[in-house]
Task: inverse folding
């Protein structure tokens, strides 16, 4: 799809669009993405510390970044690779790291949906719908805490007293207990807030980029366009949201009043500074983890 867009415009027009942003602008976008990653790592760190133990050091940060090497997998499921490295380099259980990964994906989707609702700010009569949609994610999490129904299912399985089902029920009990901790109201609210802040920084970076390229809509509208595009990419289950994210972002940017050339440049630059920059960091982290052995003290629990 990217090549179709590029074919519509001459190379000189696109080059002028890149030059209007410049290298300083690209560095600014990358710094915003880095802050996004930093906030999400801190959220992960404190949640894991509540479940099991603190995982300190630069090696722990690199283990987290290694998951970004698989940003182009459907729904980012490739990020489970970090669980392997945390287990073998820091002794963190798979149960905790995978549970936090699922928790992160749920909260990130909630944050993206919230940002998507900002585009309704442009239409005063729809603002109430946006407010309701923004609060819906939190209301569901608060009103319907998990655990009670699945706990009864687990006890029923144990009554069967069959080895396979007993093992299954034990695993289910462990998962239920983990879920209860992860989705406690305080953890849900704090994790959602940090995730919303992290993704808002990237959304603001796109808004700045769009206005720098001549976009006339408000900052909130462009942040909403970013949220819609990220949500569409996540729900499409296309690897990395490739094509879906870019296509929706381009169409919405053009509909907001941007020219086709400006929208094309904005989509390319924001994806370079987010998706492909994260992928580059992930590949570097994987290379480090494979080439540099873990220190002995890191293996102590």
Result:
């Amino acid at each position: 799809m990217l090549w179709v867009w590029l074919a519509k415009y001459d190379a000189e027009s696109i080059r002028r669009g890149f030059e209007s942003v410049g290298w300083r602008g690209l560095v600014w976008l990358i710094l915003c993405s880095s802050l996004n990653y930093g906030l999400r790592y801190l959220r992960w760190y404190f949640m894991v510390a509540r479940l099991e133990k603190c995982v300190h050091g630069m090696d722990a940060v690199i283990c987290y970044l290694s998951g970004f090497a698989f940003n182009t997998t459907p729904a980012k499921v490739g990020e489970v690779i970090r669980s392997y490295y945390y287990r073998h380099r820091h002794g963190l259980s798979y149960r905790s790291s995978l549970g936090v990964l699922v928790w992160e994906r749920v909260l990130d989707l909630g944050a993206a949906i919230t940002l998507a609702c900002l585009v309704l700010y442009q239409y005063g009569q729809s603002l109430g719908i946006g407010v309701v949609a923004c609060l819906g994610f939190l209301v569901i999490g608060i009103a319907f805490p998990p655990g009670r129904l699945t706990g009864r299912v687990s006890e029923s399985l144990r009554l069967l007293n069959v080895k396979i089902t007993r093992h299954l029920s034990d695993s289910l009990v462990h998962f239920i207990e983990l879920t209860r901790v992860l989705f406690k109201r305080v953890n849900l609210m704090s994790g959602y807030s940090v995730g919303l802040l992290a993704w808002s920084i990237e959304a603001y970076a796109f808004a700045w980029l769009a206005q720098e390229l001549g976009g006339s809509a408000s900052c909130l509208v462009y942040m909403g366009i970013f949220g819609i595009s990220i949500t569409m990419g996540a729900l499409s289950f296309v690897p990395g949201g490739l094509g879906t994210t870019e296509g929706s972002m381009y169409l919405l940017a053009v509909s907001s009043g941007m020219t086709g050339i400006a929208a094309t440049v904005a989509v390319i630059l924001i994806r370079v500074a987010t998706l492909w920059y994260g992928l580059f960091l992930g590949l570097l982290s994987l290379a480090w983890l494979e080439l540099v052995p873990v220190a002995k003290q890191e293996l102590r629990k």
Summary: Confidence is low (pLDDT under 50) at residues 142-147, 296-301. The chain is about 75% helix and 0% strand. Residues 2-145+183-291 form one domain. The two ends are 49 Å apart (CA to CA).
